[in-house]
Amino acid sequence: MECLASTSSTSMFVFVTGLLCLFNVHTVLSGELTFELPDNERMCFFESIKEGLKSTLEFQVITGGSYDVDMELSAPSGQILYKDTKKQYDTFTWTADQTGVYKFCFSNEFSTFSHKVVYFDFQVGDKPPLTAEIDSHATALTLMEQTSVNTHAQLNTIADYQTHFKLRESSGRAFAEFLNERVFFWSICETVAVIVVGIGQIIVLHSFFTDKRPANTIQS
Predict the structure, then answer these.
(1) Nearest partner of 47 among 159, 122, 150, judged by Cα
(2) Contact 56, 92 (CB under 8 A)
(3) Is the pTM of this model over 0.70?
(4) DSSP string across 38-52
(5) Span 31-125: which CATH code?
(6) Which segments of the chain does DSSP mark as H helices, in order?
(7) Measured distance CA(27)–CA(22) in Å, rounded
(8) Confidence of residue 134 (pLDDT cuts 50, 70, 90)
(9) Where are the domains of the chain?
């Protein structure tokens, strides 16, 4: 994935670009990133894809607002391959019909105050085989090789499940913290209301037992 991003905020551009460059050291054919998308902002990423390669883009809003974001994917020619508004999560798979730089953008321009935390996983082409020798094997695989291939595939599946479970855990934690904050402030309001009502009742009861007699005047 190329280390490019477009946004109106220079600091956010540098931050996200640095993360992309750092992550690019570990993977070539795929990339995943979790980033913050401020309100009234649009952030784009770019990927160079060769013709005929199958690609998959998966995204999910982890926290923020109503957990929704606008997403658009366009080809090098400018053709819109995917576009949807206010999506919480989605997966889109396509086969590139031309070689060039594909652009996908996340937009939070419809929100005026809530920031979003967005996760995306972008995969280009099929996952590489366990070893090049197994991939170009001319004869049937041995039992050990077949077991290794099956184990490798199962580990990839487990890694995908772990990623989704981590996203659910992060989303659930954010919602729990938000709910806890609301309950905390509601408890404070109730406490203040109880104190005010108690003081008011004391004042009213005190007025019932106060003897208000008119002052006697002395006539000369």
Answers:
(1) 122
(2) yes
(3) no
(4) -TT-EEEEEEEE-TT
(5) 2.60.120.680
(6) 10-24, 132-135, 143-208
(7) 10
(8) low
(9) 31-125, 148-210
